[in-house]
Write a structure and sequence with these properties.
7% strand, 17 helices, alpha/beta, globular
Length: 359
């Protein structure tokens, strides 16, 4: 499939951006907005010396995205501060996941990134205590029926989504990174044991560099919604680029850690598609080792057919006649990876009958 204009410009800004016509800029802005990569595009243009080549009409959109991104960073900073204060009451470290962790750690992946919510990881045995404490500080679950409450509390790896009663901010509280019913079973105690401190005074932590990559890969390749799939793949590219440059043994350690956590398959997909879609420099022996450990085998061709159609901006200019089919297949796969059939079939039937319910 043809490389989307957005991907081409983000990867090769010096070569592509100065030659764009106004019509191409119109398409680029639309793709970037759908992919939630507008602020990143603005950053790339500035840092690669092509900002002056951006038409004034397009600069207005990029500057607006910069403003939104700055406001979201400010909001995340405040939410992290408030969460740290709340959890300090019960002596529980604040372990950040995904975008908020990238931002607080000052990683390249966190620069100009936009956020859906704040995600945290807490020990399973303290989940009820954490929920009660957060409720006292204003984070409450939304209205949902008894089935959805049971769905989250019995089967999922997180509490029902929380929302602050005054600030309306969203919070996801995880006790693992995959449901207990999933095909793979990473031990959350291992993740917490290797977490690294970001701010000792406020007791703020993030997963280790290796675990941040593996968790990002697991999240992307177990989800059934793909609006942010390209953004999440770029997250992985930036994490890999940054962390691999810090440790000569990085690739061997990543392969070993993925096997330890029972997550070689999503880690293989992450590295494979970072190379295939985003031209990342991934050692072939690392891919071979992960492929062997994951047992992906003949499935790779089928997965390539599907994922090459969803790891793109969610825009009609990037679709072909099979894109809708690919999204549907991967939506079904995501549920199958998380739930056995005897739970999955009645769950999907119920969701089909009640499309507005959560879960």
């Amino acid at each position: 499939m043809q490389t989307p204009l957005l991907v081409d410009c983000l990867l090769h800004p010096k070569e592509r951006v100065p030659s764009l016509s106004l019509n191409q800029w119109d398409l680029l802005i639309r793709q970037a907005r759908q992919a939630r990569l507008m602020a990143r595009l603005s950053l790339v243009c500035r840092e690669n010396g092509v900002w002056d080549a951006v038409p004034e009409q397009s600069k207005a959109h990029l500057l607006s995205a910069d403003t939104v991104a700055a406001k979201q960073r400010q909001t995340v900073d405040w939410e992290v501060h408030a969460l740290s204060k709340a959890l300090s009451r019960i002596d529980v470290p604040l372990v950040l996941l995904k975008g908020s962790a990238y931002h607080i750690a000052g990683l390249d992946a966190g620069r100009q990134r936009v956020f859906n919510d704040v995600d945290i990881l807490v020990p399973r045995e303290l989940i009820s205590k954490v929920e009660l404490t957060l409720r006292n500080y204003g984070w409450i679950t939304g209205i949902m029926d008894s089935y959805d409450q049971r769905y989250y509390r019995k089967w999922m790896h997180e509490l029902p989504p929380l929302r602050h009663i005054t600030r309306k901010s969203s919070l996801d509280v995880h006790h693992s990174i995959l449901p207990d019913t999933a095909r793979f079973h990473p031990d959350p105690k291992r993740l917490l044991a290797d977490a690294v401190c970001l701010d000792a005074q406020r007791n703020i932590y993030a997963l280790s560099p290796l675990d941040r990559i593996i968790h990002s890969a697991t999240h992307l390749f177990h989800e059934g919604e793909f609006e942010n799939a390209l953004r999440d793949l770029f997250d992985l590219k930036y994490l890999l680029d940054e962390f691999s440059g810090r440790d000569a043994q990085f690739w061997q350690k990543l392969t070993a850690r993925a096997a330890t956590l029972d997550l070689s398959l999503p880690t293989f997909y992450a590295l494979h598609y970072c190379r295939q879609v985003l031209d990342s420099q991934i050692p072939q022996d690392t891919l071979d080792a992960l492929r062997g450990a994951s047992g992906v085998g003949l499935r790779k061709s089928a997965m390539d057919f599907l994922y090459r159609r969803v790891l793109r901006p969610d825009h009609q200019s990037c679709d072909d006649g099979f894109s809708g089919f690919a999204r549907w297949c991967l939506f079904v796969r995501s549920h199958y990876m998380r739930m056995p059939l005897h739970l999955l079939v009645p769950h999907l039937f119920r969701k089909a009958m009640q499309p507005d319910s959560k879960g």
